[in-house]
From TrEMBL:
Residues 9-27 have a biased composition (Low complexity). One of its GO terms (cellular component) is plasma membrane. CDD domains: SPFH_eoslipins_u3. Residues 1-28 are annotated as: Disordered. SUPFAM superfamilies: Band 7/SPFH domain. Signal peptide: none annotated. The chain crosses the membrane at residues 49-72, 78-98. This is Slipin family protein. Residues 248-275 form a coiled coil. SMART domains: PHB (SM00244). InterPro entries: Band-7_stomatin-like (IPR043202), Band_7 (IPR001107), Band_7/SPFH_dom_sf (IPR036013), Stomatin_HflK_fam (IPR001972). The keyword DNA repair does not apply.
Length: 329
C-alpha cells in the first residue's frame, strides 16, 4: 500500500531556540506497508505564529539600528551585524504555541519543562525549543495482509486507530518517533489477535476484536504518554475460494436453527393438545361444543357454507322414554 505518513514533531537536530525547529513535519520513517498515518494533517494554519516570529525579528532589528543611528550618527557593518544577531536571539526567545500544542523545552540538552499554549519564552542558546507535540486526536489507518487465523485461513483486515498524546514529556524522551511506534504496535497487535482466533470468530465478533486490540495497543503505548481512544475494524476480506463454502455453511446453520425452533414449537403444541385431550375425555358434550366452534371458525375464515348431517345435531337433543322418539313438552 501507499505510504503516506506524517510525523507530529520537528527534528531535534534543528538549531537551538530557532522558530523553525518546532515546525510540524511527519517524516516517512520506516512505516510498515499497509499503514498510513494521517496524524497532524492539520486543517488549522500556523501562519500566525510564523508571522509573529518575523515581526519580533524585524522589530528587534529596527530597534538596534535606531539605537546605533542615535548613538553613532550612522549605521555601519558592525551595527548591521549586531542587529542581525540580536534580532535572531529575540525571535528565538519568544514563541507562539497554539491551543492544541505543548512545547518541550530542553536546557543544555536536559529536559526542563513542558510549556504552552500561548507565548513561551526561552533563554537563547541555553534552552532548546526542539519539539512541539500535537495533542489533538490523531488517526492511523493500518491493516494486516495475508494474516493466518488459528484455522490457517489467510485474511486481510483493515482498521483505523484513534489516539492522542496525553504526556508530552514521555512522548518526547521515551520514544524516538511515536507516530511510527503507534503504527507498528497496532499492526503487530492485530496480527497477533487474528492468529489466535478462527476466521468465523473474526467475521462475527468484530466488537470483541476491537476491544482486544484496544487493550493490547494501549498496554504498550501508555508508558510513552499515548492513550488509545478507539479501534475500529473497517473491512475483513476472506479469500474468494472460501466465500462460497462459508456462505453454504451459514445457510446450513440457519436451516438447522429453524428446524430446532420448529421442533420446540411442535413439542409445546403436542403437550398442550395432550392436556386438552385429558379435559375433553371426561365430557362428551364439551368435545362436541369444541367441534362446533372449530367448524364455525373455519366457515367464518373461509366465507363458505358448512353442511352438518342430521345425526350430528341429534346429539344435542334429549331423547324421550320411547327409544328413538323426541320428548314431548
Amino acid at each position: 500500500m501507499k505510504r503516506d505518513t506524517q510525523r507530529g514533531a520537528a527534528s531535534a537536530n534543528a538549531p537551538a531556540g530557532s522558530a523553525t525547529s518546532a515546525a510540524p513535519a511527519y517524516a516517512d520513517r520506516g512505516m510498515p506497508d499497509g499503514i498510513r498515518s494521517v496524524t497532524s494533517r492539520s486543517r488549522a494554519s500556523r501562519n500566525g505564529a510564523v508571522v509573529f516570529a518575523v515581526v519580533v525579528f524585524v522589530a528587534a532589528f529596527g530597534i538596534v539600528l535606531a539605537v546605533a543611528q542615535a548613538a553613532f550618527g550612522e549605521i555601519g557593518l558592525v551595527a548591521l551585524a549586531a542587529a542581525v544577531v540580536i534580532a535572531w536571539l529575540a525571535s528565538s526567545s519568544v514563541h507562539i504555541v497554539l491551543e492544541w500544542e505543548k512545547a518541550v523545552v530542553l536546557r543544555f540538552g536536559k529536559f526542563n519543562r513542558v510549556a504552552g499554549p500561548g507565548i513561551v519564552f526561552t533563554w537563547p542558546i541555553v534552552e532548546f525549543y526542539t519539539l512541539r507535540i500535537d495533542q489533538r486526536v490523531a488517526t492511523t489507518y493500518f491493516g494486516a495482509e495475508e494474516t493466518l487465523t488459528s484455522d490457517l485461513v489467510p485474511i486481510n483486515v483493515d482498521a483505523v486507530l484513534f489516539w492522542m498524546v496525553w504526556n508530552a514529556k514521555s512522548a518526547t524522551v521515551e520514544v524516538e518517533d511515536y507516530a511510527s511506534a503507534v503504527a507498528w504496535i497496532a499492526q503487530t497487535a492485530m496480527r497477533k489477535a487474528i492468529g489466535s482466533t478462527t476466521v468465523s470468530e473474526v467475521a462475527t465478533r468484530r466488537d470483541q476484536l476491537d476491544e482486544l486490540l484496544k487493550e493490547a495497543i494501549e498496554e504498550k503505548l501508555n508508558p510513552w504518554g499515548i492513550t488509545i481512544i478507539d479501534v475500529e475494524i473497517r473491512d475483513i476480506v476472506v479469500p474468494k475460494e472460501l466465500q462460497a463454502a462459508m456462505a453454504m455453511e451459514a445457510v446450513a446453520e440457519r436451516k438447522r436453527n429453524a428446524r430446532m425452533v420448529l421442533a420446540e414449537a411442535e413439542k409445546d403444541i403436542s403437550e398442550m393438545l395432550k392436556d386438552a385431550s385429558e379435559v375433553y375425555a371426561g365430557d362428551a358434550d364439551a368435545m362436541k361444543l369444541r367441534t362446533m366452534h372449530l367448524a364455525y371458525e373455519s366457515v367464518e375464515q373461509s366465507g363458505g357454507t358448512l353442511v352438518i348431517p342430521s345425526a350430528f345435531s341429534e346429539g344435542f337433543v334429549d331423547n324421550a322414554p320411547g327409544e328413538g322418539s323426541p320428548s314431548k313438552g
